[in-house]
From TrEMBL:
Database matches in Pfam families: NmrA
Membrane-crossing residue ranges in chain numbering: none
Ranges in coiled-coil conformation: none
All residue ranges annotated as the NmrA-like domain in the record: 10-273
InterPro entries recorded: Ergot_Alk_Oxidoreductase, NAD(P)-bd_dom_sf, NmrA-like
Organism, scientific name: Mycolicibacterium agri
Organism lineage: Bacteria, Bacillati, Actinomycetota, Actinomycetes, Mycobacteriales
Origin: domain of life: Bacteria
Protein's name in the database: NmrA family transcriptional regulator
Length: 315
């Protein structure tokens, strides 16, 4: 029988001020709804930390790249959520976290939000780095549950493609026309919540979490055409072409960065060449979380303002 974890100390949550999917903020809200004490690790006090504090979360100013700042944040913690942005630096962040845990002398059970490409031989530099970071945490003897989400986030469509959809009626990337599994950022947070509070549902150290539905980017272009009333098409391009597109986007969008550009373009090429990915499994998600997932259609409909304009340039 599944049982909910009880803990007296706060649950430490890293990454709660990130913007790629707002997964961390959603997790904090859900933990507070469940009556749990939450301590958020944040590099600075900001409008985002003010929102989290308004939910009842404690804000601990610290940085995964400053081991000294992690020691007080971990002082009375027996349960933690570790995640890192889609950016370079995860190995040193994991090393600092593991070292701080050792210094504090507690052994908090740590849920790691990971990615499907976490593998020593993956073409993505971030995928290889994520795998190595998890090795560091294991070598340190931490009590881990690693959630490798084998799906793209709905939010990727808005972050990576909204500008081209608005201006050119175009989605272009290196994924080809293959279907891939998708998940909403809030639903990824639901998996994290379940792993934190219901560990019996995750008996293995590494859990591969499939997406909740499958779409190709051709399918998504069709959905956007239907929902916006404007024609949207998909164009398949090479890994290098898409990486260059994303590097250009990173000059004006502070969510996208060079490491992310290399990562997602390499993942796209891998999927296009293999012609396959792990199948989506909505039933498994519902069994783990007890909730229905957000659908791609619901996400796009709720975010239509990001994709619509009548000031398009010729394709």
């Amino acid at each position: 029988m599944d049982s909910q974890v009880e803990a007296d100390g706060p649950i430490l949550v890293t990454g709660a001020t990130g913007r790629h999917g707002n997964t961390g903020e959603h997790l904090v809200r859900r933990l507070r709804d469940a009556g749990r004490a939450v301590r958020v690790l944040a590099r600075t006090v900001s409008e985002r930390t003010e929102r989290l504090a308004a939910l009842g979360a404690e804000i601990a100013v610290g940085d995964l790249h400053d081991r000294r700042s992690l020691v007080p944040a971990l002082a009375d913690v027996d349960l933690a959520y570790f995640t890192y942005p889609i950016d370079a630096g995860v190995v040193s962040a994991a090393t600092n976290y593991a070292s701080a845990v050792q210094q504090v002398g507690r052994r908090p059970r740590t849920v790691v939000m990971s990615m499907g490409p976490a593998h020593p031989d993956h073409p993505s530099e971030l995928g290889r780095a994520q795998w190595l970071a998890e090795q560091v945490l294991e070598w340190a003897g931490l009590d881990l549950t690693i959630l490798r989400v084998v799906a793209l986030f709905h939010e990727n469509i808005a972050v990576l493609h909204a500008r081209d959809v608005r201006e050119r009626g175009l989605i272009r990337n290196s994924f080809g026309e293959n279907g891939v599994p998708w998940i909403n950022g809030a639903d990824a947070a639901e998996l994290g919540l379940a792993a934190l509070l219901h560990p019996a549902r995750f008996p293995e150290t590494i859990h591969y979490a499939n997406g909740t539905e499958e779409f190709s980017h051709v399918d998504i272009a069709g959905l956007l055409t239907e929902l916006t009333g404007d024609a949207v098409r998909f164009e398949s391009i090479t890994k290098d072409q898409w990486r260059d597109d994303l590097l250009s986007l990173s000059q004006t969008d502070d969510v996208v960065n060079p490491a992310m550009a290399q990562h997602i373009s390499a993942v796209g090429e891998t999927v296009a060449k293999s012609g396959r990915s792990l199948a989506a499994d909505r039933a498994a998600f519902e069994a783990l979380t007890g909730r229905e997932p957000v659908t791609m259609r619901e996400f796009l409909h709720a975010n239509l303002d990001k994709f619509t304009t009548h000031q398009r340039q010729p394709a």
